[in-house]
Design brief:
- By secondary structure, the chain is mostly helical.
- It has a domain at 272-478.
- The chain is 76% helix and 2% strand.
- It contains 20 helices and two strands.
- The longest helix has 32 residues, at 157-188.
- The chain starts with 6 loop residues before the first helix and ends in a 5-residue tail after the last helix.
- Belongs to the CPA3 antiporters (TC 2.A.63) subunit D family.
- It is found in: Cell membrane; Membrane.
- This is Na+/H+ antiporter subunit D.
- It comes from Paractinoplanes lichenicola.
Length: 499
């Protein structure tokens, strides 16, 4: 089944080329995009099944075997990320089509939107499947170039300004990443991840720490960890709702994925664990304090996005199997819930004309469906039992308690505080936007079905994570065990031979 491995990258790229040739034919573009992303989701599910039952699937692109050629690897972690990201991108695409129809295509010019969106999808999937550092860099650059276009769609002053900041920050992280790649190649003679396992271990500790630090800095900017996150709240909220949603759900998680992959595979042993734990604590607490201070729903959600990245660093920094498994579970939860909340914010903006809390009110009465679409993922984000947010946080707390260190206990306390403040932040939104008396300008009305349906699908999917938490956590545990052993990854690439 190795022929399936390149398809999540190839299909969106071919779809992007096809939709680009269909400029001026929005119905054909929509059909192609929906077909491609549906097929990508089905292939991703198949990859998750086969990687769980048969082990990692490896493809040498063009027949050039590792370490000379480009290798794509679908292990359990990569396949799980593919499934979640494919489901999210498909739902957001349907939402964007509904918004385009409701707004007369003014917010999302379809001739540009569809090919760019598919290119973004290809960049994300390529990053997840990359078996070498340079191909990981290529995946980042593909998705970043596409994100520049999506972020500035419409050409408004605010979007151009936000896009400029985003471009500068992204280029900075890319330069750091590319410099690290050059230094690693100079020190080891390879960029293949499986071959780097042995060669990096042979380097002096000081040099390894420098290379590790550079990669963490580059990925930390992309993942928006504190203090490298100030660009995000000013960039994401200016974009159209579907663009903001897919950015919030996926772009920062690609950075987190890169941290998980490199820290477990290339730099095991916890040399940077203290840095990750401290950064995770600061990201959680400072991020949620920023959310509490906001009066706009999109900016508030942007700060909660930053804050909950800290939970992921918490799990990775513990360097234990339970901590890593909990972090993997929480990645799946966070991608789903943050995307859902930003889609709900788009519905609030469509219904109320704004996401500023002082201009909203009475939405629970005027639009009960919208109230449910916001409330369920909001409670999930806050970690209210029995939702998946509670299960993921409980796993991280258990991992921290099992560690028993002072810093781990501080993270446990910080995680609980962040969860309580998250509940306060979303309760404040609920009180101001949904409960209080609505402004006279707001009248009862119906929401576009094509915007409600994908949002509802993600709400159901997020709630369903509770019912499949056992199997999902088991997959995360198996992935964590494989990541920590490292030998299975190396053997899957080189077939048991010495790299």
């Amino acid at each position: 089944m190795t022929f399936l491995v390149p398809l999540p990258v190839v299909m969106p790229l071919l779809g992007a080329a096809l939709t680009l040739m269909m400029a001026g034919k929005p119905r054909a573009q929509r059909t192609v995009s929906l077909t491609v992303l549906t097929a990508t989701l089905l292939v991703s599910c198949a990859l998750l099944y086969f990687s769980t039952t048969d082990g990692s699937l490896v493809v040498a692109v063009g027949g050039w075997e590792a370490p000379l050629g480009i290798v794509l690897i679908a292990d359990q972690l990569a396949a799980l990320m593919l499934v979640v990201s494919s489901a999210v991108t498909l739902c957001v695409l349907v939402y964007s089509i509904g918004q385009g129809m409701a707004d007369g295509h003014e917010e999302t010019p379809l001739s540009v939107y569809h090919p760019t969106y598919l290119v973004l999808t290809a960049g994300v999937t390529n990053a997840f499947l990359a078996g070498d550092l340079f191909n990981l860099y290529v995946g980042f650059e593909i998705l970043l170039v596409a994100s520049y276009v999506l972020l500035t769609i419409g050409g408004t002053e605010n979007r151009i300004r936000a896009g400029s900041t985003y471009v500068v920050v992204s280029l900075l992280s890319s330069v750091i990443f590319l410099t690290a790649i050059g230094l690693i190649y100079a020190a080891t003679g390879t960029l293949n991840l499986a071959q780097l396992v042995e060669r990096l271990d042979a380097l002096p500790d000081g040099l390894r720490l420098i290379l590790q630090g550079m990669l963490l800095l580059a990925f930390g900017i992309k993942a928006a960890v504190f203090p490298l996150s100030s660009w995000l709240p000013d960039s994401y909220p200016t974009a159209p709702a579907p663009v903001t949603a897919v950015f919030a759900g996926l772009l920062t998680k690609v950075g987190v994925y890169a941290i998980i992959r490199t820290e477990t595979l290339l730099f095991p042993g916890g040399r940077a664990a203290v840095v990750l734990l401290i950064t995770g604590l600061l990201t959680m607490v400072i991020g949620i304090l920023g959310a509490v201070a906001q009066s706009d729903i999109k900016r508030l959600l942007s700060f909660t996005l930053i804050s909950h990245i800290g939970y992921l660093l918490f799990g990775v920094g513990l360097t234990t199997q339970l901590g890593l498994a909990s972090a993997i579970f929480y990645v799946v939860h966070h991608i789903t819930i943050q995307t859902t909340l930003f889609l709900a914010a788009g519905l609030i903006e469509h219904r109320g004309g704004s996401t500023a809390l002082d201009k909203l009110g009475g939405l629970a009465k005027l639009s009960p469906v919208l109230a449910v679409l916001f409330l369920v993922p909001a409670l999930n984000l806050a970690g209210i039992p029995p939702f998946s947010g509670f299960i993921g946080k409980l796993g991280l707390v258990q991992a921290g308690v099992a560690d028993g260190g002072v810093l781990a206990w501080m993270l446990v306390a910080g995680g609980i505080l962040t969860s309580l403040l998250t509940l306060y932040a979303v309760a404040r939104v609920w009180n101001l936007a949904f409960w209080r008396t609505p402004p006279k300008s707001m009248k009862p009305g119906r929401l576009p079905a094509l915007m409600v349906a994908p949002t509802l699908a993600l709400v159901v999917f997020g709630a369903a994570l509770t019912f499949v938490a056992g199997p999902l956590f088991e997959v995360g545990d198996q992935a964590a065990e494989s990541l920590q052993e490292r030998t299975a990854y190396v053997q899957s690439v080189f077939g048991g031979e010495t790299p």
